[in-house]
Structure formats: structure tokens, C-alpha cells
Amino acid sequence: MLHSTNAVPRIGIVVVAYNAESTLRQTLDRIPVDFRSRVAEVIICDDASSDSTFEHGRDWAARSDTPATTVIRHTKNLGYGGNQKAAYALAIAHGLDIVVLLHADGQYAPESLPQIIDPFLTTNCAAVFGSRMMDKGAAKSGGMPFYKRLGNRVLTRFENGVLGTDLTEFHSGYRAYRTSVLKAIPFQANSDGFDFDTQIIAQVVHAGGTITEVSIPTYYGDEICYVNGMKYAKDVVRDVLEYRLAVQGFGTSEWVPTPDEYAFKEGDGSSHSLILQMMATMPPSKVLDLGCSAGCWRTGSGRLVTPSSVSTPSSCPGCVSARTRSSSPTSRNRWRPRSAPASTSSSPVTSSSTWLARATRSGKCVGYSAPVGS
Asked: Bigger pLDDT: 333 or 71?
């Protein structure tokens, strides 16, 4: 993934904030004064805080010594990942070239912003991460608790092994991305929870992007932590395994780009045509289709159907019509296939082989075949 490094990039800083009235302005004031002229826009995203976070952000934006600043307040809490989705979408819409994620609680040093940006100016990297684990002993001296250091290292080693990466830290929230990369990956399908950060790593790597790490200081103070450590560990382990299986063709997931499907082989003597000839002599039965791309089916009239050869109706009778989603902002959408309706055809082909449908987790029908005479 190559990117132009000739033009001066438009740099944006995205500040994710939730109940951060006691830290937001102090964190923003720590943005180096000599760096502010390089910042095209600061975007402060208040995730429906119950305190005065929004007002503090608006006051900072009104000052004469600050970069152009947009302050938004969500009417409902979107979650850590959901807040990032909204912020990155806004950064893309505003024409920014590079967007840096900064936490409003001050845990990640704004003083390191120049170091975070520098690799974008000298390399074709897709993202730059600040790592607290690059320098031996730095995390400990910065106050990171032992259990967090241990968990960080164990999970990072596991994730590197599954994804084939070599990062020193998967779990830093100090990150910067090229918006051209964000446009190329389905980050809007990611979790609304804290494991958003792991999923986007897999997506960037999958897109062929390079992630560069720079050392940053570690700071642990009296900020409030909203992360459930055990749930977070479970989520990120599941995410990397889900990614690895999906890219190898085992299952699908909205946030994992699907591999290209191969075309149906229609020629005489092909494996597909031979299988269909064999099936033509068999009685109606259920068939388990393994490793056959999007699949192909024969309808009650004998017509061969593939997803690309049929139209997609606005309301496919073989697809679900309702989403099953919990009220939790970190839940995933789940779609279930509806049982096939009774056949109205006089064809000996059973209804289960006449009504055929494919549905994705986004609920969009890929194609279906209706009974003869319907």
C-alpha cells in the first residue's frame, strides 16, 4: 500500500472523551505550541458525557491560541469503538490526510505528537503506534501495574503469532492513521467496544499496510479506567482467531474483508459439471456444500442458479426480516436464516432444495430462487 509523501499532509487530532471534564483542557494544553500550526483540525468527540466535558471542549476551541477545533457531543453513548468510528468518518469528510487518536484523560502524552507524525513524512507507513513496551523497564517506571504489563505482553505475543505481525504492543491507544487507509478498510463494521483497536490492526495488515511503532512514555495516574480486563482479553483473542479463520475461508464476519470468490466452472468435464451430472441421477436430498465459493444450486425447473446470476429482491422470502441485537453497545449483529417456506411447486424437488437463499450478517440477500409457478 503506497502513499504519496510529497505534499504537506493535513493533520488532524481526534480526541475521544467521556466524563473527562477534569482532564480534557489540561490534556489539550499539552499539545506543543510549536506543533499547533501543523494541525489542520482538532476534533473533540464527547461520547454523551454526564459532566461538563462538552462545555470544556467548546471553551478550549474558542481560544485564540488553539488550532481550528470541532466539538461534537453524541446524544447517546456510542462506546469507545463507536466514538472512534464517528470521529474517523468526520476526519475523512473534512479532508484530513492523517488523523491521530488522543485520549482526553492525558494518559498518552500530547508532547509526543511530533514523533507520532514524523514516520508519515519519511515512509509509506499506513499507521503509526505509540508503544510503551519498546524500551525495557519503561512501562514499569511509568506506573503500569504488573498485571497489566503481564497481560499486555502475553496478549501481544499471541496476537503477533496469529496475525503474523511483530508489534511490541497491541494495546496502546496512542495511534495515527492515514485516512486513505481508513477509506480502504471496513472499520465501520468493527466492534463498538474496546476491542475495536485490535480489529483495526487486523484490517490494516490485511490491506497490506505497514504499522510503524515509536516509543512513548508511560503514565498511570488517577484517571478512571472503563475497561473490563477479562472481557477485553477474551474479546481480542476471539477477534484475531475470527480474523484468521475468516481469511482462510472458515466462516464470515462483517469486519473481515472476504476473499475473492472464484467463478463457477461451466465447461464440460469440469469438476462442477461432473458433480451436477451425478446429482441429476440422485433422489432429492440435502447436500452439504464445502469449499464451493458462493455456491450454485439447481432450481425446481432445472435452472442452474449462482448468486451473481439472480436479481436481489427488496424482500427475499428466504432471508431474515429482523435484526437480533442486544442493547449493549458492544454487541454484534447476528443474522439467522429463516426456515424455507412450503413449496407450491409440483416438481419432485423438495422445498428445501427449491427455496435457496444466502444472507450476509449485514442482512443483504445475495440471491434466491423461487419455486416454479410462484
From this structure: 71
Q: What's the CA dihedral at 187, 193, 195, 198 to 10 degrees?
A: 20
Q: Which residue in the block uniquely carries the three cell numbers 470544556? A: 56
Q: How far is CA 167 from the centre of its chain?
A: 19
User: For residues 28 and 25, what is the distance between their CA atoms, to the nearest angstrom?
Assistant: 5
Domains of the chain: 11-247 (3.90.550.10), 261-374 (no CATH)
Q: 369: helix, coil or strand?
A: strand
Burial level of 324, CB count in 10 A (0-12/13-18/19+)? exposed
Q: How far is residue 144's CA from residue 249's CA, in Å, rounded to a whole number?
A: 39
Grouping H, G, I as helix, E, B as strand and the rest as coil, residue 238 is helix
Single-letter amino acid code for the residue at 202: A
Angle at 77 between CA 332 and CA 211, to 5 degrees: 65
Cell 471496513: give the residue. 186
With a CB cutoff of 8 Å and minimum separation 6, the contacts of 150 are none
Give yes or no for residue 372 having a pLDDT over 60. no
pLDDT in tens, 38-67: 999 999 999 999 999 999 999 999 999 999
CA dihedral over 278, 280, 282, 287, signed as positive or negative: positive
Per-residue pLDDT at 257: 81
pTM above 0.85, yes or no: no
Locus of grid cell 468510528: 85
Q: Which of 103, 79, 77 is nearest to 16 (CA)?
A: 103
Q: Report d(CA 67, CA 110) in Å as an integer.
A: 14
Left, alpha or beta for 367 (phi > 0: left; psi -120 to 50: alpha)? left
Tell me the per-residue pLDDT of 85-99, one tens digit each, with 9 for 90 and over: 999 999 999 999 999
- pLDDT at residue 179 tops 90: yes
Query: What residue has cell string 503474523?
Result: 164
